[in-house]
Ring-cleaving dioxygenase MhqO
Amino acid sequence: MSLQTTGIHHITAFARNPQENVDFYAGVLGLKLVKKTINFDAPEVYHLYFGNEAGSPGTIITFFPWPESRKGRIGGGQVGITTFAVPVGALGFWEERLASFRIDTSKAERFGETFLQFSDHEGMRLELVERDEGAPSQWTFGGIPADKAIKGFGGAVLFSTNAAKTMEVLEQVLGLTKSAEDAGYVRYVASGDSGNVIDIPGSSMEWGAGGAGTVHHIAWRAADFAEHEQWQQAVAGHGYQPTGIIDRQYFNAIYFRESGGILFEIATDPPGFANDEPADALGQQLMLPAWLEPKRALIEANLLPIEVREPEVKGQ
């Protein structure tokens, strides 16, 4: 039987000011900062992870906030819209909450679902959709009750420079199932219950440009390390050129760029974010890999201080 991912593991994007990033995703959206570390390839830049109470796969959005980053342009070769799932009946709450922070919203319909669409402080496109599927979040913050809190990813909308090729990868490489077509979109579904619905415009798009407010890559789930090695072989067997297996401390990763220009990662579910700090203290301290620990003082001196704080409601 061919491999099948159960859905999205995480999505990683570019940002600029790290405190503004924390204020939006932890403060406004109420996600938990589950890991505060650095970009292992560029230790002068934070790598911040937000998700549910445990940072479970399928809930994790991560950022490289670099104050000197250029402004990006959303377009082909990217995740165009990141979709979060909320409990059924919660969309009205979120429409009012976002309005209280003077965040403009609009509604869109696809495949019989209503999406509340908006952009973050950098211009990155986001949307909320009500879904029964997926475990409810146990994390509450900033006046968001648990029965309204974001559960994790609903999925994503992929913007491709070669839509036919990207759809081929979704189906033939990642093992998603084509489920429907509607209003110019094609929907693919993975077997999991979160981060499992991928919509893609049927028409190819012009290239975007990476930078603040855009997604760097989307990562798909591998159940364990053994399956991860199989994924590396399977991706290569389909004519792509995956990287070697890279230890990211909280998961192992391989990367490849599919023919529509989107950078795909396949990441392992284990070992998770309690790998280097207690589960009840996630995100409280700056965590460094062992090889960078001797440089902690220098790294900390070069990073802007950040804190998770209650959001300031701006009113209508």
About this structure: The longest strand covers residues 42-51. The domain at 8-302 is CATH 3.10.180.10 (2,3-Dihydroxybiphenyl 1,2-Dioxygenase; domain 1). The longest helix spans residues 225-237. The radius of gyration is 18 Å.
